[in-house]
Amino acid sequence: MSSQNFSKPEFSRELRLGLVVYGGVSLAIYMNGVCREFYNAVRGRGIYKLVKALTDSDIIVDILSGTSAGGINGVLLSYALTNSSQDEVIDFENFAQIWRENGNIRKLMHKPSITQGKNDGESILDGKGYYQDALAKAFEQGQSNKKKAPSDEWVSSFNELDLFVTGTDVVGRVDTVFDDTGRVIDLKDHRTIFHLKHRQGRKEPFNPNFNPNNSTVQDTYQALAKLCRITSCFPVAFPVVTVELDNPSNQVDAKLVEWGILKNRKLPETPPTGGYQLHFVDGGVLDNRPFSYTIKEMYYRADYYPVERKLFYIDPSPDNFAGSQKFNQMPKPDVWEVIQESLLGMPTYESISNDLGLIKDRNQKIQRYHSLLADAESPLFAKADNSQQTTLPVETGIYWRSRMISLRDRTLPLVLRMSQVSSTKSYQEILNKQVILDKIAKLLTQHITEPEKRENNDIIPQDPSQQISNLDIEYALRKHFYIVKKVCQLMNQEPSLSEYKTLQSLALRLGRHIKLLEVLKMALTKLLNHPQVSQSFYDRISCFQTNQSSEYTDNNNKLLSDIYNRLIRLYRFLLDAEGLAEFVPQNHQQSYLETVPAYFLQKLPEEAAEQLAANSETQTVGKTTIDWLPQRRISSIFEQFQQKVNQVEQEPNQLQKIWEAEKFKNNDTENNGEQYSSVLCKIEEASEKFIELSGVNQSEELLTRFKRFRELDKVLYPFEYLSEIEEKNLIETIRISPDDAQLGFGKGQNLDSKLAGNTLNAFGGFFKKSWRSNDIMWGRLDGLNRIVEGLLTPEGIAKFPNFLKRQAQEYNIPEAGEEFEQFKEQYLDFLIQESFPNATADHQDKIKGHLRKLATPNPDISEDYLKTILDDLVLEGHRDILSTDLQNVIEDEISEQLEWSQQRVQPAAPNDSQTTNLTTSLTTKPQYSLVQGSFSETISLLAAQELARKSIDSLPQGKETFFLNHYQVGSETLSKDIPTTILTNLATRAALIVRDLLITVLGDRTPGFGRSLIYQVLNTSLQLFYWWQQISQSSGIKKGDGSRQKLIYLVVQVALLLIAVLSVVIILYRSWIWFAIAFITG
Question: 524 with 458, same domain?
């Protein structure tokens, strides 16, 4: 069989990656290169095909968090991932241009003006104009340049992604709490988290064509661009970003308000001039290392497939405390050092030790949980025939009471809207309401937790099992997660191919039920959190009495009992299997929703059985061919339940009907009888059908486990509830930094030798284009290095032999023998050709030798040999990156010299060609020579591309030797490697912009500042010097911009100013005539 006949394989598990992108000013350019490698990993390009095969895993990035300039990369990566599909892509590669072209300090800075105060006077860089427009244009071009996906990609599909982006709210979110004596305590939080949740077909914030609120595609581009500005508006460098809270015509800000839940706050009773507005500065001011959001989302992210979780975080400039001079000598600080450390050093240092400790503690809890689970399963499921129905010695009352308390804890804050703040009520009304709610919540807790109150006045129903059975969505989720986990464990036991595919089909179908349950959970949240539901409960509890007399106590007990009764009735109302109406999507919804009959969920078990019967010959499905409850149907079911929630406000007295309906009263049928049947029952029955009729060898055991899960839950749930464990996979952490990446081309190098952007307090990358392309290249090199290291662990590559066996079965090849060995050789060739098509024959043979070793079951691989394998794989991946990105660096060096009209030169050897000098000039101390005239931007770009290509082709020893032995862009410095005239020009421009800042800040407070003689002399001289630079073109700024006219104007102005100065001096000795001359000329 020819390797050309092999197709993209399916993998048995998933590697789900979280990514934290730090702030770091221009070091975010390096992070952009790292993010590109994560995009390539998901898309299955190059080396990542081999990584997926070696680990038998799809690679998915589904949780990201970013702050400051790193937050921009988080938004860009999320945008590219969610808008790319199996058929078409928005290639993240194109977003490198944002940094290469638009990360130019000269483009970012405001243009200086002769007239003072012409700029916004808020910042040095133009955030509102150039920066905002450049980002919005990048998002728009991503859509317009969308292209067909490369046919050779091994894409890992996904439909969920969460992005967390930080901002710093200058005003702050004000909140009020009470101490135990009822005293008011005001709190304020300046941290703001923008959470963008992508749920394919239901929530798509990154998709400009998905606009349920009738916003335009431009609104999405502008909103994402403004979010990038919010998280990265470094104080003074960029202007403060303002967001309107209540302008219905401003759909851009409306999206930001939704993503950041910005309206949930107390506001002034009287709207200020201009309406309610919030003002943001850089998210890194308070949260430069946004770990906690990613960690929390990972813990609550559900799995219904064999999954391993890893958390990567990019720290381009990691802390190195141990071994420093201060650490070793422990000197006593002087007064100045004490002031500096107390005010700036220690308060602003942000440690991730707590976050890493949180992961460690959580992993330990999960390990203890799995130990308890194994102990609890042993007596329950010891016998395959389950002839002896063992029961565990667990107090049933404790279990049901725990579940009831949990249900109350989840429900009560929603119903009472404890997390919601009304901006329309007066401050005193808000306080009064909060006092009552706090007292009610405390009293409910006391009646459950204090024995003397529970004994005589227990307000919880005496038989909670009858009341909450088949109403508790959390229980249904736990039950389904448990059985899917068991199915996944069977998949990992290396079954036959047919058995594996049958198990996979079962896991995927049960996984769709988990998705359905999550949608029901969302609908329930909307119902319980509905304003009218909240107001109904508030009206009911407003008569609560704090008097301790017996009469008041009896009334309060009745009141609290009624609260529980109403909560249960709301659950029954929503989950009534017979109470749904048909859903028909509106015209603008028909592209992503479909009609759902009223009876669909009621008939779900029958639908499941019919589907299995119809597909009895081809029951197996893959991740991309799942035919049960596709996302379109699940999204439509959510809308069907949303219709029911809307009845609360659309139908008169709907809540009163719920409180009084006979159908929703307490029953003794566990909510599954003739009068009332819960949707949860139907989902469970459908799951049982799938398990029973799946054709899995262990279907009877799985069905028994599913039906008897409650007995297991009695043991585990109290521990799970107290430890707050939901997602039960361990999380590994991997750091990405220049110092950590020591394989391939990165061996022996560090931050200082790799990155140019770390100069000038990490602002250096904005000053030179070749530095930006260099840092992107090293980001890619280091990102690939650390991803490969983090994923190709001994445990990960142990999956490879079984992967090869399964592939052989796919092509009807025996799992052993000569035919299998021939197949294995061909398949290894196929993997190498797919992963490294440009590798030389020698390099391919070397990698194949490693793969032969890894393909052996239980290979004896030492730690040193594994490192050798990783180093060779990384090196080959680095060669692919170098083949494209090195030319970008040289091209950018040349194009910027053309833009500056400054050619980089040095003495050349007699036989050296001009193109060779262009590359060797990157390795020596530069000299710059002024070049008269200039090219248009297009011609300069084409010339740079051609010269860079010829430079690369003319390297006598090849790219790799040049890069390893001569390339030194990362070691360049601001003072030595940028022409003095360019730096002088930038400094002069900055001074003119700072002038406008001073006028803005001091203008109102010091009216005479702008008219003072000293200011006028300095200001005019500064302008004259700047425009003289423009005329001489020493800074490469093109002619034809009216500079000569401006120069003449300035010369005249300076002449008049000098006359005025001279007149002021003479007036001290002369008559009033000289005073008049000074007055007129000044």
Answer: yes
At position 916, the amino acid (one-letter code) is: T
Determine the 3-state secondary structure of 385 from DSSP.
coil
> Is there a single domain that holds both residue 456 and residue 585?
yes
> Is the domain of 429 the same as that of 479?
yes
Residue 430: its H or E element: helix 427-449
The number of C-alpha atoms within 13 Å of 818 and in the hemisphere containing its C-beta is 0
pLDDT for the residue numbered 1081: 47
Structural domain boundaries enclosing 141: 13-315
Q: 776, 835, 792, 742: which is closest to 36 by C-alpha?
A: 776
Cβ 992 vs Cβ 1023: under 8 Å? yes
Whole-number Å distance between alpha carbons of 798 and 765: 42
720-761 pLDDT, tens digit each: 766 666 666 678 889 999 999 999 999 999 999 999 988 888
- ∠ at Cα 599 (594, 602), nearest 5°? 120
Q: Which phi-psi region, left, alpha or beta, contains residue 1064 (left: φ > 0; alpha: ψ -120 to 50)?
A: alpha
How far apart CA 616 and CA 16 sit, in angstroms, is 32
Q: How confident is residue 551, by pLDDT bands cut at 50, 70 and 90?
A: low
Instruction: Evaluate whether 176 touches 428 at the Cβ level (below 8 Å).
Output: no
| Number of other residues whose CB lies within 10 A of the CB of residue 908 | 13
Q: How many helices (H) and strands (E) does the chain have?
A: 43, 12
Helices (H), 386-426: 396-415
One-letter identity of residue 1051:
V
Alpha helices, H only, 272-352: 291-300, 325-329, 335-340, 346-348
Please name which of 407, 536, 425 lies closest in space to residue 469, comparing C-alpha atoms.
407
197: left (phi over 0), alpha (psi -120 to 50) or beta: beta
**Is 1033 part of any domain?**
yes
Q: Do 205 and 246 lie in a common domain?
A: yes
Q: Are residues 466 and 609 located together in one domain of the fold? A: yes
The answer on 410 and 373 residing in a single domain is: no
Count the domains in the chain: 5
Shared-domain flag, residues 359 and 404:
no
pLDDT one-digit tens code per residue, 801-858: 999 999 999 899 988 889 999 999 999 999 999 999 999 999 999 999 999 999 998 8
* Separation between Cα atoms, residue 420 and residue 263, nearest integer Å: 9
Note whether 368 and 404 are same-domain residues: no
